[in-house]
Automatic annotation (TrEMBL):
Belongs to the metallo-dependent hydrolases superfamily. Adenosine and AMP deaminases family. Gene3D superfamilies: Metal-dependent hydrolases. The lineage of its organism: Bacteria, Pseudomonadati, Acidobacteriota, Terriglobia, Terriglobales. This is Adenosine deaminase. Its cofactor is Zn(2+).
Length: 354
């Protein structure tokens, strides 16, 4: 796998990009854990489960306490399996409400540094349930972190609860039922991630229908590791309002035209797509073609600490590698608020700042 996005050759984010108000619509809470925080979590919870070996990464993690250098090495994974194992290294050490409060608060702090004023992070509720954990007390910790982060850094957060495609619809029902139960506590939507081929969208049709009936918004990872048919299914079977990644939409001109005409937003994650090998090289990424075709693209980081990227850096990649002008970037930033699951009055407040 190509472990470089090419971003090391780019200029630092411009003052315009840093000052541009932005929303982050494709961000996994667990993927925001930086090496220092992972080392701190490791000291709190030295897991007894073997998580990594150096077949996949630059360090072996077999239950010992990790130093910050160890944590950095875990994020220097060698392939997509290594990325999944790095993600597991984090989730194995998220055990109690204080842990989730810590990572949520630090996520808010980093978002503020990036000029991000609003975010809709995914929470891997499906993974927590799959591991046999109880969720409500962990969510209490997230909410404490969110409240502190909003107070201290001025970043507004609403949550999206994420199910896992390849765990199947029975597990998905658990996630959606919990999202419905907690929708008055800043939960605005549901999503499905994981193995697209191993969990077809059509299996989740009734789950999504139930979520929509109960006032939740709908998004779905699609077209990241599989082709355009996954995106069609997310829209037709799930009625998804946004598409996570949507990388392979460009392979189907009819789909691109439909996305543009319908105004369906795509949560584009450039560096993520290259780091996971879903896109072979930065220069081959279709973000410019999608934008020029009139597709409503938003720019996001996915798992920024694991992919070595930042939101301002992703905007700078658009400018340096794909020729986006400042006006183009302003359009992308507007898209991020227009495609958000905020009430219309709140969208207009943010749009006015742009």
């Amino acid at each position: 796998m190509n472990s470089s996005t090419g971003s090391e050759k780019l200029s630092g984010p411009s003052s315009f990009i840093r000052s541009l108000p932005k929303a982050e619509l494709h961000l996994h809470l667990e993927g925001t854990v930086d090496p220092a925080t992972l080392a701190e979590l490791s000291r709190r919870h030295p897991t007894t489960l073997p998580v990594l070996n150096n077949r996949y990464s630059d360090v072996s993690d077999s239950g010992r306490v990790l130093s910050e250098d160890d944590a950095r090495a875990i994020y220097r994974y060698k392939d997509f399996i290594g990325f999944l194992m790095a993600f597991k290294a984090v989730t194995e050490r998220l055990r109690d409400p204080d842990d989730y409060e810590l990572i949520t608060y630090r996520m808010c702090e980093e978002l503020a540094r990036e000029g991000c004023v609003y975010a809709e992070p995914y929470v891997s509720v499906g993974v927590i349930y799959w591991r046999g954990g109880e969720f409500d007390h962990l969510f209490d910790g997230m909410e404490r972190g969110r409240e502190r982060g909003e107070r201290d850094f001025g970043v507004k957060i609403n949550w999206i609860f994420d199910a896992v495609r390849h765990f199947g619809p029975d597990e998905g029902w658990k996630v959606v039922e919990k999202a419905i139960q907690l929708r008055e506590r800043n939960v605005v939507g549901i999503g499905i991630g994981g193995d697209e081929a191993g969990g077809p969208a059509e299996n989740f049709r009734e789950i999504y229908e139930n979520a929509a009936k109960n006032g939740l918004h709908l998004t779905a990872h699609a077209g990241e590791s599989t082709g355009p048919e996954s995106i069609w299914s997310a829209m037709n079977d799930l009625k998804a309002e946004r598409i996570g990644h949507g990388l392979h939409a460009i392979e189907d001109p009819e789909l691109v035209e439909h996305l543009a005409k319908s105004g369906t937003a795509i949560e584009v994650c450039v560096s993520s797509n290259v780091r996971t090998g879903c896109c072979r090289a930065l220069a081959e990424h279709p973000v410019r073609k999608l934008f020029d075709a009139g597709v409503k693209i938003t720019i996001a980081t996915d798992d920024p600490e694991m992919f070595g990227c930042t939101l301002t850096g992703e905007y700078q990649i658009l400018q340096d590698q794909f020729g986006f002008s400042d006006d183009d970037l302003r359009r992308v930033a507007r898209n991020s608020f227009e495609a958000s699951f905020l009430p219309e009055t709140e969208k207009q407040k943010y749009l006015a700042a742009i």
